[in-house]
Specification:
- By secondary structure, the protein is an alpha/beta fold.
- The chain has a single domain, classed as Formyl transferase, N-terminal domain (Rossmann fold, 3-Layer(aba) Sandwich), CATH 3.40.50.
- Strand 4, helix 4 and strand 5 form a beta-alpha-beta unit.
- About 40% of the residues lie in helices and about 20% in strands.
- The chain is globular, with a radius of gyration of 16 Å.
- Helix 1 packs across helix 6.
- Bound molecules: 5-O-phosphono-beta-D-ribofuranosylamine (GRF).
- The site of 5-O-phosphono-beta-D-ribofuranosylamine has 13 residues, from helix 1 and strand 5.
- It comes from Saliterribacillus persicus.
- GO terms for molecular function: phosphoribosylglycinamide formyltransferase activity.
Length: about 190
């Protein structure tokens, strides 16, 4: 399948997807990297990999509908089939949802519906829960509310810091996201 990865940050999940493709454990191709942050690390990485990049500045548009119309045009041009959100820090609007219905996935660093929104790892850590994890879900108009596709638990051991918890969560993310995308592809949906 032809994937478009959306990211605003470091892009470690983008890296994991690219690696899985190289190792042939993920039967896909990243045909476009979409970012709302021209200075993001992930943009640099994508350019170095020769992944085509569409970077936009939300401020330069009248609103979400306008920049999503441009995104959809780029997705169509690249013939993207699935949209993979990987640290894209924005809610998806109706323009994109309608164009890619049932084809947009997100990864979130908690066991949803617990700890949606920003800093889910910090939220779980501060709440003192013993178990958190990673969720991959379909994207709908809400914040981290779409139907759940896959989840994996991560135990918060005594003595863990926020940093070591983050590391444990990222390890799970980097395996679970490519695997879940592959399973979706194999399901033929
Ligand atoms: C990940 O923790 C993901 O769960 C969340 O944003 C983070 C992105 O990290 N949605 P990276 O840019 O892939 O390293």
């Amino acid at each position: 399948k032809r994937l478009a990865v959306f990211a605003s940050g470091t892009g470690s999940n983008y890296d994991a997807i690219v690696e899985a493709i190289q190792k042939e454990t993920l039967d896909a191709e990243v045909v476009l990297l979409v970012s709302d942050k021209p200075a993001a690390k992930v943009v640099e990485k994508a350019k170095a990999n020769q992944t085509p990049v569409f970077v936009f500045e939300p401020k330069k548009y009248a609103g979400k509908e306008a920049f999503e119309a441009d995104i959809v045009a780029e997705l169509k041009k690249a013939q993207a089939e699935l949209v993979i959100l990987a640290g894209y820090m924005r809610l998806i609007g109706s323009t994109l949802l309608e164009a890619y219905e049932g084809r947009i996935f997100n990864i979130h660093p908690s066991l949803l519906p617990s700890f949606p929104g920003l800093d889910a790892i910090g939220q779980a850590f501060d709440a003192g829960v013993k178990l958190t994890g990673v969720t991959i879900h379909y994207v709908d108009a809400g914040m981290d509310t779409g139907k759940i596709v896959a989840q994996e638990a991560v135990r918060i051991e005594d003595g863990m810091t926020k940093e070591s918890l983050q590391q444990a969560i990222q390890e799970v993310e980097h395996r679970l996201y490519p695997d879940t995308i592959q399973q979706f592809i194999e399901s033929g949906e």
